[in-house]
Specification:
Layout lengths: L2 E4 L17 H12 L7 E3 L6 H4 L5 H12 L14 H20 L5 E4 L21 H13 L4 E5 L6 H6 L6 E8 L21 E6 L4 H20 L3 E6 L16 H14 L3 E5 L5 H16 L18 H11 L6
Parallel strand pairs: 1-2, 1-3, 3-8, 4-5, 4-7, 5-6, 7-8
Organism: Candidatus Syntropharchaeum caldarium
Pfam family, one: Hist_deacetyl
GO molecular function: histone deacetylase activity
């Protein structure tokens, strides 16, 4: 297998000040990948600046101009989402980096890839930035796959601890994109209920698994094996995108899910059972150790490299997820053989 990675130094210039989503996140990831001799075993994918037209795949032209204007004057899109002079360009390169990653996988230049980008994107709505996100990188990449490569079945898996409201809304009525989210609930932004299943032709193509805090490795694996695998296998995706937040890690200050570093590698193993053509993009994750080790574990799975990130905690789960799984199955049984 050849595994690619996307990185561009402009991502560090998105200056958020004293903020959880800060440039040190990428620095910590790259440092650990170098220390563990993983980076030189990967294929570098150059990030190109996305065009305004490409951002318009998923966003209101007036909103794009608003982001540029606020960036130029170094303001904020909301209370949680500060921007600096270089933030607009960084956001264009983040979306462009993900487009480049999917193109490289489609072209079979690499087997799979991880886009180490910032700012993140899954909270960004059509005409609104929020939750540290400016443009919805994964949604733009999915639309690129549809428009430029003619794909008709795209799976987006979002395991960030926060529900990806922006991504869900982007494809809520679209049967060509199956959006599957596992997230802590109730938690920011308060969306992602079990009965949020899509609308119109897209009904049944949104799957939300809202979990209570503290379910840990065991609970996540139960959800992936009992809900994700059967639904995704039946959907039979032509391409898989993963919004990977590491804020479900047990060390993370903004989550409470108690997941260990090596579990992220196991999650990725499960996704790779579903199909080929996998591109991961970086979303949340705010403890530098938890974040960098989680990303290392994902790269280990993607590239088939043995990496040591400790032991999984499979012997217990602080909270039982059986009721959640049962309720999700009841709702989704009208659409899937589950």
């Amino acid at each position: 297998m050849s595994t690619g990675y996307v990185y561009h130094p402009i991502y560090l210039k998105h200056n958020t000040g004293a903020h959880p989503e800060r440039s040190e996140r990428l620095i910590a990831i790259l440092d650990l990948l170098k220390k563990r001799n993983v980076l030189d075993r990967l294929v570098k994918i150059n990030a190109e600046r996305a065009s305004i037209k490409e951002i318009e795949y998923n966003h209101d032209p007036a909103y794009i101009k608003h982001v540029q204007a606020v960036s130029e004057r170094e303001g904020a899109l909301d209370l949680d989402t500060p921007v600096s002079k270089d933030s607009f360009d960084a956001a264009l390169y983040a979306a462009g980096g993900l487009i480049g990653a999917v193109d490289q996988v489609i072209s079979k230049n690499v087997t799979n890839a991880f886009a180490l980008v910032r700012p993140p994107g899954h909270h960004a709505e059509y005409a609104k930035g929020m939750g540290f996100c400016l443009f919805n990188n994964v949604a733009i990449a999915a639309r690129h796959l549809k428009l430029h490569h003619g794909l008709q079945r795209i799976l987006i898996i979002d395991w960030d601890v926060h529900h990806g409201n922006g991504t869900e809304h982007s494809f809520y009525d679209d049967p060509s994109v199956l959006y599957f989210s596992i997230h802590q609930y109730p938690h920011y932004p308060g969306t992602g209920r079990i009965d949020d299943i899509g609308s119109g032709e897209g009904e049944g193509f949104t799957v939300n698994v809202p979990l209570p805090p503290g379910v840990g490795d065991k609970g996540y694996l139960e959800v992936m094996n009992e809900v994700l695998l059967p639904i995704a296998t039946e959907f039979n995706p032509e391409f898989i995108l993963i919004s990977s937040g590491s804020d479900l890690h047990k060390l993370d200050p903004l989550g409470g899910m108690n997941v260990t570093s090596p579990a992220f590698g196991k999650f990725t193993d499960i996704v790779r059972e579903i199909g080929d053509g996998v591109v991961v993009t970086l979303e949340g994750g705010y403890d530098l150790t938890g974040l960098s080790e989680s990303v290392l574990a994902i790269f280990g799975s993607l590239a088939g490299i043995e990496v040591d990130t400790g032991e999984m905690a499979l012997d217990r789960s602080e909270r039982d997820v059986a009721d959640v799984i049962s309720n999700v199955k009841k709702v989704q049984r009208s659409y899937w053989n589950i």
